[in-house]
User: What shape does this take?
Amino acid sequence: MAKTALFRATKLCLAICMLSFLLVFSPCTAQRVSTQKTLNAAIESLNAGNEEVALFKLDTVLARQPLDTEALLLRARVLCNRNEFDRALVDYNKLIELEVENKEAWYGRGLTRLELKQYEAALTDFTNCLEMPDKPTNTAYFKMDASGDFTSSINTLRGMDAEIWNHIGLSHYFLHQFELAVQAFNKGLEINDKMADLYVNRALCY
Assistant: This one.
């Protein structure tokens, strides 16, 4: 009886070990590991300033995992930097479908829509962005001025409400809603009265 029980226990232990092995080394797991390595390589390429290689690797990741939110966000940014705004918009749309509270996605889509001259839609995105919860991020963004050009100044979304109000003002400005634009710039100045862009852009409304 004891030998039989020991034999059964041994078989059960072997079965559990085999199941664990299959879970760890299954094709799905191997693909996830490979995909993560490709994503890490894409990030390294971006850090090295090689957007073309990064874009290729991000395309590879999303071909395997179309719902990878990190890859979608990174590819959208790369596409914007390459002036491929229509393609970037598709990625931002998908990302917001997957993560409706992703503040970076709302902000990035707003910037993209400004470039596409979709000012009303951009206004909606920036307004929604203000309502999203803040999450830690070190992502850098170029700022836009009222001339429609991106400047070289860079900010992150952390504590960036004044900058978001600046873009709300710009959206109103491009829609020729100057009074609303002034109100938005003033809102931004209530948050950060040292932000020169807000003064400059507000002056353009008069």
